[in-house]
Amino acid sequence: MAYCGAGCPQMMLKAQSIFQKDTMSRLAELRHESDQISARTKAMLEQFPGNKWGGTQESEWAGLMARAGEVHAEITSLQAANEQAGRDWTNEDGGRVKVLRNAADFRAHYANMQGGAPRNGEQIQISDFLRGVAGMKTTAGVSAALSVGTDSSGGFAVPSLVMPQILEALVPASSLLSAGAGIVPLSEGAKQYTTAAVDNIPTAAWRLESGNLAESAPTFRAVVAAPKSLAFYFKASRELLADASNMDAALNVAIAQAFAKELDRAGLRGTGTNPEPRGILNTVGIKTVSNGVNGAALAGYGNFFSGAQELLSANAPMPTAAIMSPRSLVKLGGLSDSTGQPLRRPEMLSGMTMLSTSAVPNNLTVGTSTDCSEIYIGDFTKLAFMMREQVSIQVAKEVFATTGEIGFVCHVRADVVLTHPACFAVVTGVRA
Fold first, then answer.
1. Are 361 and 421 in contact (CB under 8 A)?
2. Which residues are CB-neighbours of 138 under 8 A, at least 6 positions away?
């Protein structure tokens, strides 16, 4: 049998399982002690009115209050540690990596990579970088970045000063990222990334005083993400690239939207067959809700309640968002009640963010119906894109030479990981 060191997935998952099991056991002990303290203080108040206490009662009460504070502090600390363990991602070296979710996260991560502020206060924009890649006049900072060399695909890595701009534009363009999913940046040397997925959460059980705790450890498994290549090309005239004042914003949006659409599709419906990542729909352990043999029209919020019920019944948290096709979102918004007034969202679903993406099709076949769609419901913080830290851009010099345009090929490497599949439900057979 091959030796499995401290950093291998099996050992990491075993350690994480032991940690959570031990944490739960200690929490049970502390809660039992807290119950005992509460029972004793209640008895003291009932048996000995405060105005009749002597030194013995005063001393006992002070000791109980002090211990109650200690127990509460330890419970709070262990709960926070247990919750953090569930949120963190574990790499193949056993370390924990923060999931990047917003502009502040992106800026902080890439600032650390490039050692703080730009040299001499220089601000590099995406248009500066593209002009440099195309051999046009650009800034000293871009020239320095380009001098580092090319990557394996013959492209240039987008500088750390520019990457946050692209990622910030990516979040609103992606329904998954808008719903709470994150990005785990992988260094260029990392060929894969191992994290722990939770299949089953522990079950609490009552016990007699001094009795044994019921053993109910969570079930973990290793998920290995291997970044897969995703690319697209775009073109721009030399004049536009050189002169347009709003070129940076346009480029950031264009690149972000191109990647966002396919990342959403792969994250939701990816087959897992190389070179495509595996998305929610094809992940073992998710919940499903059927609209019948031939599907059914979206007539209210029943689908969302059914999805939430599936998740809550699996002891998963209340879903935070739902992602559907634009057709379904518009249909939902246009529903009315029996009086002709817009259909109000039920209070139970008031915290659920409703999003749409064209990555969810409207032409799926269910029984005899060929106009069906899907709705994805869940806690999307349990999904992340494992993405190489750098986007690579390669110039296509000859393709558009006759038109005076410059072509660029943009590469990113990413994979999709779900840490708790039972936090997601897919509603199928949603008709027009």
1. no
2. 128, 129, 131, 132
